[in-house]
Hints:
Elements: E1 4-10, E2 14-21, E3 26-32, H1 38-53, E4 60-67, H2 69-76, E5 82-87, H3 93-96, E6 121-124, E7 127-128, E8 134-136, H4 140-152, E9 157-161, H5 170-182, E10 187-190, H6 191-194, H7 200-230, E11 236-240, E12 246-248, H8 249-254, H9 265-277, E13 282-288, E14 293-299, E15 302-303, E16 305-306, E17 309-311, E18 323-325, E19 329-330, E20 333-335, E21 341-345, E22 351-357, H10 376-382, H11 400-415, H12 419-444, E23 454-457, H13 461-472, E24 476-479, H14 486-492, E25 497-507, H15 513-533, E26 541-550, E27 557-561, H16 571-586, E28 595-605, E29 628-634, E30 639-647, E31 656-658, E32 661-664, E33 669-672, E34 676-680, E35 686-690
Parallel strand pairs: 1-4, 4-11, 5-6, 5-9, 9-10, 13-23, 23-24, 30-32
Antiparallel strand pairs: 1-2, 2-3, 7-8, 11-12, 13-14, 14-15, 14-20, 16-19, 17-18, 21-22, 24-35, 25-28, 26-27, 26-28, 29-30, 31-34, 32-33, 34-35
Helix pairs in contact: 2-7, 4-5, 9-14, 10-11, 10-12, 11-12, 12-13
Amino acid sequence: MTSIKVGVDIGGTFTDFVFLESKGNRSFGKTLTTYPDPSDGFIDGLEDNLQKFGYRYEDIDTIIHGTTLVVNALIERKGAKTALITTEGFRDQLEIATESRYDLYDLFVENPFPLVPRELRYTVKERILNDGTVMEALDETGVKETFRRLREDGVEAVAVCFLHSYRNMAHETRVREIAEEVAPDLYVSLSGEVSPEIREYPRTSTTVANVFVQPLVQRYLGKLENALQARGFSGNFLMMLSGGGTCTVETATRFPIRILESGPVGGTIAGAYYSERSRLGQLLVFDMGGTTAKASLVDDGKPLTTNEFEVGRAERFMKGSGMPVKVPVVEMIEIGAGGGSIAHVNRLGLLKVGPESASSNPGPASYDLGGTRPTVTDADLILGYLNPDYFLGGNMPLNKARAYAAIEKEVAKPLGLGVVEAAWGIHEVVNENMASASRIHAVEKGKDIRDYPLFASGGAGPVHISHVAEILGVDTVLLPIGAGVNSAFGFLTSALAFDFVRSFHGRLDTMVWKAVMALFEEMERDGKTLLAQAGVTEEIEILRYAEMKYAGQTHEISVPIPAGELTVQSVAEITENFKTEYAKRYAEANEEMAMEALNWRVVVRGPEPHIYLRASENQATAVASPKAYRDVYFRTYKSFRQTPVYERATLAPGVEFNGPAIVEERESTLVVNPGFLLKVDELSNLWMIKEGAHV
Length: 695
């Protein structure tokens, strides 16, 4: 009996499917994302592809799903009517925030509007001190009266965030117990469970965001589970976490904020997988889909992660202009530059592309589904990069005449340009935007981007990767098979995992290690319980980290903490680990200043999935034969050039040829610029190497 794992990634334009057999065979599917309910496209697309490839629901061992549902709901403010209950005197914490301005010189700076308006922010009498002791008991009568008012106001969800509950959440727990008695229909999230760490504003913001989307996520995942079970699926249904692991639907429903970026991280996780398989220590993952483009770094085969994230920034590249969320997230920079990004001429007469997207409804003009505004896909079609008769393998023909008319009306005529010049301008603006974002991301991490080979991912990524590589000065590009559905494949390479955090502040030389060990043991125990609920009881890996800084500094860095019992004797090793991590980021560590730790983290991870990829069985001669030729526009020639077009499935391992060239597969199209040599390896991955490069 065939056993398969399925990855399903719902993006803004397309829903992607990857089917991986235990024997290593892979099959790919792609369908338009459905609106307003993306779960319809999930079920219909899954069913269509199962029939297409001859699988049954009974054959599916595991489905891993990633989605942008949560982040979109937060950005668009399309969640539940939410209230906040907090300590008396802290009603306006969400608006006071950190009291800092993300742009000191902008007199009209706009801060993100809180998810909870002031009239739905309630306070009750209680007070817990920063050491966890109770200063003032919880006013339970006041809590009951608050919930009565919440029900009268039609509130659906409630966030509970008391002062210092990260040290003692007894009062928050009691509030939930009262809610279960007097208002059992309300969704309730406690900050001591969602984000049990110091700093009031981000903890409150994260808890509010969690419960704001909880009803939406529960309905969405519940509908999917019921639909799958009704069709005969009885395997594991898992969700991708923003930090790179996977979790059960039950966990995702309880902590939906943890799946905030579950869709976009798939490309980075796939990049990390191929980094190890290809013996590349470093990669810059360039993932361009239909709605956005993402850039992320992979170091030593692992994606860079952070515990701080911002949603819905008022200024895209301005830190502090968004809503803070304290959850583990794979670090990436994201811009509104996908295949569906709309090109327009602004009031100053300048060409702009994005961030608004045509998505799948109505889609780019060339989709012929009602869209009339020009997009990146339309420009790529005019330039000859895309074959109008082979988009999605020919299942979705593109209308070149509509693309031409849209660019002519919206861009070419306003700028006084020809349509081809306008299309090239759209293409080039997008490339420059993505290259600039990638460069910023690398510089912020203290990295030289020229040291990072590019990894192409997403349906539009391979079309633009050559030009982006040239702009960045990168010599090597790796393109895996099925790059257009690469995020969905990345899901399948991820292990079951969950992150935990506890705050306990102290200097390293005077740390109470028994207290720290108690926190670690609690987190490890909780993690093992979660994995056991998913059926994982063996080969469990536990990773420890501390967020540390020099005394007097404001920001912490993540430092690995050794396994086993921590005592005074552990200080020397932890000190060296801190200095190593500090020097990586800031070039030099201080040998004299005292060090302190603020937060302690544990990652509890199940065994890595055994992913076996079958080597190519294509025994054809290592000579490439074009299937066609067509006119393609290249910057090198500043004109169209008759260019060979290859079918990727016919390129056997060992094939080499020089650009310019086009390589087509069902899910994406690779543009090989002049000056690049293309090679095919034993797993049918494509490598583009700049002429004269030493690799």
